[in-house]
Specification:
It is a single chain. This protein has 202 residues and is α/β, with parallel strands linked by helices. It has a single domain (6-201), classed as 3-Layer(aba) Sandwich (Rossmann fold). Helices cover 35% and strands 21% of the residues. It is built from five helices and seven strands; from the N terminus they run E-E-H-E-E-H-E-H-E-H-E-H. The chain has helices at 36-44, 86-102, 121-132, 149-163, 184-201, and strands at 6-12, 25-30, 62-67, 71-75, 106-114, 137-142, 173-175. A seven-stranded mixed beta sheet has the order 1-3-4-2-5-6-7, sandwiched between helices. The two termini are 20 Å apart. Mean pLDDT is 89; it is low at 53-58.
């Protein structure tokens, strides 16, 4: 897949404010500070279309971007950020769950996890919720440049083993580094594959 153009469409505080559901869309979500904005910028080859910040929890809205005038990339709020109030966390999760339950055009959710860490409870719980609701998702491990190859392989094995307790088969996994631009083609190829399947089903 070639990214020819990308345009910010709008930010929404709730699902009812999102653009019409007449175009397929891919959602990107993960724990705060997982590198989501940097990954989106790397995929789209834009420096700042998704706003990056040193402060976790920057994304607090549902952000839609129109790609190639054909589909939407959706940047969702992060979860698991301890420094926001409990009510804010509850509000974010309601926004996220409402989005996934109300967007029939959502082709695939990319759940981002930090490759440096063992499986986090909030990640496993969220992916379990997706599975229970029949929502297709894939896992993107980020920040590969922060690990040695042996450390990465060890963490891959730990993650796969943990998820194999619940999933059979495992969801697709992708391995990325925004700074090294690793994994871009693999993610885009998978998105292209998903779009073709979506078109065939319409």
């Amino acid at each position: 897949m070639q990214i020819k153009n990308s345009i910010f469409v709008k930010s929404s505080t709730k699902n009812s404010e999102c653009p019409p559901d007449n175009l397929p869309e891919f959602a990107f979500i993960g724990r705060s500070n997982v590198g989501k904005s940097s990954l989106i910028n790397m995929l789209l080859q834009r420096k700042d279309i998704a706003k990056t910040s040193g402060t976790p929890g920057k994304t607090r809205l549902i952000n839609h971007f129109l790609i190639n005038e054909q589909w939407h990339l959706v940047d969702l709020p992060g979860y698991g950020y301890a420094k926001v109030s409990k009510s804010d966390r509850t509000s974010f999760m309601k926004m996220i769950y409402d989005y996934f339950e109300s967007r029939p055009n959502m082709v695939n959710a990319f759940v981002l996890v930090d490759a440096r860490h063992a499986p986090q409870k909030s990640d496993i719980e969220f992916m379990t919720w997706l599975g229970e609701h029949g929502i297709p998702f894939s896992v993107i491990m980020t920040k590969l440049d922060k690990l040695s190859s042996s450390e990465l392989q060890k963490n891959k094995n730990v993650y796969h083993k943990k998820m194999a307790e619940v999933w059979e088969p495992l969801p697709p996994f992708f391995y990325t580094s925004s700074s090294a631009k690793t994994g871009r083609e693999e993610v885009l190829q998978y998105m292209d594959y998903c779009l073709k399947l979506y078109a065939e089903g319409q």
